[in-house]
Q: What sequence folds into this?
């Protein structure tokens, strides 16, 4: 069992209070996943030509300032780290892929949680309520966000094994369920050049989507291909730069509820998470059908 | 008992925004065995909580104002529970008697393993509606999802809309009535003739569900072909 939540803001007011609502939703799903918690927030897009990294260090005394100086020396500018607990977000004057590759090479002790224009991923072991206060979720503003509470089944309880997983720029995935063909699929994707940091089944699903998108599929096409190639149980919530998407496997034994008002679109494992949102009682609510991809995207300006 | 309760007008209102769920359920359970107390209840702000009005065993009327979570009205005996909203997984699971009514939609496994009583869903029911039903009657005004009435043993499932794939897979003696399109029948489930006695019992069920305007003759009947292993006399020695 795991808990999933997602919130997509359709009004400025909701964008400003996104973190507060995400925190309330995540806390409601604590019972479904008391092992670990994590979020992906899309906010403050990096200026053109630069990119944003979220890094994790297991060392509480990590010298983020020194890392920023190294990044400045390598790519120019004067990057600054915005530190939250064990994570730091750094704006780099480089393409996201280049900055990410440099960190992996020069600092193998650090984990790249996410890379892209707007995405920030934070995740940790421990109870979701503790995560919410430790990372000060209520202070986040943003356009959309995903969250996950984990009850581990397929791999160990570690920060790296927590959700969301990102294996592509501005892309992330949270998963409730378990995949049974992840080992073989991981090998196939590695041969295609997709990098994995864990033995976790859900990371393979994220890598699979990254590969399909890289090969030119739309988000909907990539999700529909999951129905053919992924064996197991899943409700997926996938975050992209512009929005998010929901997919349940054809058996659909993992729960999902979607609701929409003029101010927001929300997805969660259970209604009690969505019930925390303003106007929830009047929201249009439905259960996503098995094997059907649902996607919301911000209108491109 | 107060005067207003004596004439049946009093309604006990419990707001789950202030009253713990366990307190509500305990008060309802305390009314089993003809213990005196309020017979009509109104529950406010369920907000998707699990196991609301679960395990009742008295002739009560319970109205729930809003969406409920998992296992609402599970194991119910005698009581009439109505949800003015949607219901999560396992609505009225193992219903024994009484009625459970949902104005909105029900999630998967509604009425699972139910042994008696009537479950009415005015919206749609999701996958596995009536799974392993053992005597319950279920009437769904909308449609049901895939694998509904899986291994159904006894009782009637009435679907005014459509049924998803693998309806009635490995069914025993339950009777299934569907008015709309059936995406596919499960193993050993076949269409059967809708005779007068079936139309009569269907009319009765629709009336009980408050759907007297629906014509029983528009339905098709499905049931067991009795061809699976357990139905073969050659296998009787194995038991």
A:
């Amino acid at each position: 069992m795991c808990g999933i939540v997602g919130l997509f803001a359709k009004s400025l007011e909701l964008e400003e209070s996104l973190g507060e609502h995400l925190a309330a939703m995540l806390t409601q799903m604590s019972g479904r996943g008391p092992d670990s918690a994590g979020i992906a927030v899309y906010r403050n897009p990096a200026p053109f030509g630069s990119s944003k990294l979220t890094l994790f260090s297991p060392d509480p005394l990590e010298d983020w300032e020194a890392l920023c100086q190294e990044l400045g020396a390598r790519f120019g500018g004067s990057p600054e780290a915005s530190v939250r607990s064990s994570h730091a977000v750094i704006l780099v004057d480089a393409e996201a892929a280049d900055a990410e590759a440099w960190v992996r090479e020069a600092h193998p002790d650090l984990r790249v949680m996410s890379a892209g224009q707007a995405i920030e991923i934070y995740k940790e072991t421990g109870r979701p309520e503790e995560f919410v206060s430790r990372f000060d979720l209520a202070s986040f503003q943003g356009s959309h966000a995903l969250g996950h509470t984990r009850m581990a089944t397929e791999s160990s309880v570690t920060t790296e094994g927590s959700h969301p997983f990102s294996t592509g720029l501005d892309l992330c995935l949270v998963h409730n369920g378990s995949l049974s063909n992840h080992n073989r699929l991981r090998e196939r994707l590695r041969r295609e050049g997709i990098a994995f940091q864990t033995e976790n089944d859900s990371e393979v699903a994220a890598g699979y989507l990254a590969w399909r998108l890289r090969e030119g599929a739309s988000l909907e096409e990539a999700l529909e291909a999951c129905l053919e190639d992924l064996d197991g149980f899943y409700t997926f919530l996938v975050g992209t730069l512009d929005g998010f998407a929901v997919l349940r496997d054809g058996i659909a034994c993992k729960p999902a509820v979607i609701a929409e008002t003029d101010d927001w679109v929300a997805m969660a494992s259970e209604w009690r998470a969505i019930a925390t949102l303003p106007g929830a009682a009047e929201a249009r609510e439905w259960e996503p059908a098995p094997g059907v991809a649902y996607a919301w995207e911000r209108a491109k300006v | 008992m107060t005067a207003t309760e004596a004439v049946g007008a009093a309604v006990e209102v419990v707001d789950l925004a202030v009253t713990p769920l366990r307190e509500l359920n305990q008060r309802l359970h305390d009314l089993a065995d003809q213990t005196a107390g309020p017979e009509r209840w109104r529950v406010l702000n369920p907000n998707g909580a699990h196991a609301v009005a679960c395990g009742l065993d008295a002739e009560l009327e319970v109205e729930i104002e809003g969406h409920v979570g998992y296992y609402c009205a599970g194991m119910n005996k005698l009581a009439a529970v109505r949800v003015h909203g949607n219901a999560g997984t396992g609505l009225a699971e193992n219903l024994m008697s009484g009625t459970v009514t949902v104005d909105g939609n029900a999630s998967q496994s509604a009425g699972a393993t139910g042994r008696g009583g009537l479950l009415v869903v005015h919206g749609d029911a999701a996958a596995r509606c009536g799974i392993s039903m053992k005597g319950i009657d279920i009437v769904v005004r909308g449609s049901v999802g895939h694998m509904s009435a899986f291994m159904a043993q006894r009782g009637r499932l009435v679907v005014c809309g459509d049924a998803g794939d693998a309806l009635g897979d490995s069914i025993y003696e339950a009777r299934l009535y569907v008015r709309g399109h059936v995406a596919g029948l499960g193993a050993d489930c076949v269409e059967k003739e809708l005779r007068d006695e079936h139309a009569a019992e269907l009319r009765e069920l629709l009336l009980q569900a408050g759907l007297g305007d629906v014509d029983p003759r528009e339905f098709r009947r499905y049931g067991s072909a009795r061809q699976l292993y357990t139905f073969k006399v050659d296998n009787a020695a194995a038991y």
Q: What stands out?
A: The longest helix of chain A spans residues 201-214. The two ends of chain A are 39 Å apart (CA to CA).
